[in-house]
Amino acid sequence: MDLTSPAHLLRDRLRAREVSAAELLEATLRRIETVNPAVNAVVGADADLARASAAESDRRLAAGAARPLEGLVVTVKDAFDVAGLRSTAGAAAYKDRIPTVDAAPVARLRNAGAVVLAKSNVPTFVSDFQSYNPVYGTTNNPWDLTRSPGGSSGGAAVAVATGMSAFELASDLGGSARWPAHACGIFGLKTTWGLVPSWGHVPPPPERRTARNVDVMVAGPMARSAADLDLVLPVLAGPRDPTVSTPLAPPRRTDPRGLRVALWVDDAFAPAQAGVAAAVRRAAALLAEAGAIVDEAARPAVRFEEAFEVFSLLNHFIVAYGLPPKIRLRLQKGAAAASPNDLSHRALQARGARMTPSLYHQTTLRKRRIERQWARFFESYDVMLCPPAAVVAIPHDHHPDVHARRLDIDGAGVPYLDLLKWGSLASGAELPAAAVPVMRTAEGLPAGVQVIAAKGEDRTAIAVAAMVEAMGCRYEAPPAGR
Fold first, then answer.
1. Nearest to residue 70, comparing CAs of 2, 17, 15, 26?
2. Can you give the pTM of this predicted structure?
3. Separation of alpha carbons 344 and 394, rounded Å
């Protein structure tokens, strides 16, 4: 059984009774036993709970009453509560925490027949671009074990890339799904804000949850094909009640001919490695060859710097809200000295961590203006192509001060938190964005493209991902997953 097949093909085999849910589960357990020691992506498994779920799936499949995801074996990012499984958010303070209620999107997956087996590894408090923590240790990239798979959905990306999960439930605040998808060579979807309920996710911490979705943070799928994203999204979309679904807007186009594509690759504010830029341009060239209209000069009436500032303030506010009080106070100390014109990561982190009602109000007004500017832009264009992140998979770097870490942009060092920049365009404006694998660099590392679509038009982003995939830009099993 090829566990690196796309989830929709595994589902077809289950429905055709070529394989049972119990057999798929046992094959997945053997896969984890073989592959996971090298990558350390899957954590907190409970085979007995999963076997009971698989048995129920087999009863439904035999009765012809299969639900949309019946029998598919999945892992869930350890930022989400899963009833009966340890849910640590990578934090020692939560290492023995076992919820009795599923997070809202997890409940939706279960209600659709998915067999939840385990969690996938995350950074401490789900607040880094690499996936390592004191509870479960470090997750390695399956293309190069000396590198990180990214974060915070790093374990999720590895589980999908290596066939240890049919698909994954991930989350994305500032690129937390798109960056690891790009780094591991799979597909990931940052959904429109509010489309998928995020109750039961950390951040915020379990003891400080609110009914409303956290600003700019979303939940969404990671998978091995665009069709899998399209399979899972309708299950996740909707209010907290897992029995109620939300209609999704159809894609603007399912064929490249006449597709209006904007291209945003070169920007002095957010330089990207040559290999990353090459992947974005390759995706654009393939679409153009198939009849799309590509415009590299097109931009929304949005200054990248302002979009990044607005997003960063909200991002750092949310992350700090979920941190222990001691750490939060330390971050806040620099706020008084931080100039409103200072866009350094340290100043933005301090200002966001010390968010006042007045600053929140001003930031929200600016955010809404940026959203309107994007909406006008998408009246003339169908999608925007840009880098998912500035770099491909990076070597492990666990320096305790994130401001001391550096990214290598073709020999030039830039701040580590520049990993937030390309993700901020879609996140700050609440837009859907798909990460799509395109090619491998000279080092053999995956490089992808980010496809941003208009608010509420998640299926347009997925449709363009499918177009690029059909032109040969597909998932490949990495060395650690072969």
1. 15
2. 0.97
3. 22
Q: Give the active site residues.
A: 77, 152, 176
Amino acid at 387: P
Q: Which domains can be identified in the chain, with CATH numbers?
A: 7-236 (3.90.1300.10), 260-301+372-481 (3.90.1300.10), 305-365 (no CATH)
Question: What are the tokens at 65?
Answer: 């009453």
In whole angstroms, what is the distance from residue 482 CA to residue 466 CA?
24
- Name the nearest CA neighbour of 89 among 147, 134, 40: 134
Task: Convert the pLDDT of each residue in 229-269 to its tens digit.
Answer: 999 999 999 988 888 888 899 999 999 999 999 999 989 99
User: Cα–Cα distance between 236 and 68 in angstroms, integer?
Assistant: 11
Q: How many contiguous H segments (helices) and E segments (strands) does the chain have?
A: 14, 15
Mean pLDDT of the chain: 95
Q: Is the pLDDT of residue 72 over 90?
A: yes
Distance CA 476, CA 185 (A): 7
Rounded CA separation 237/245 (Å):
6
Hey, which bits of 147-274 come out as E strands?
A: 168-172, 187-190, 218-223, 260-263
Q: Residue 87: what pLDDT?
A: 97
Query: What token pair was written down for 153?
Result: 């959905």
The pLDDT tens digits of the residues spanning 349-408 come to: 888 888 889 999 999 999 999 999 999 999 999 999 999 999 999 999 999 999 999 999
Q: Give 117-134 as a DSSP string.
A: EEEE---GGG-SSS-EET
Phi, psi of 304 (to 5 degrees): -55, -45
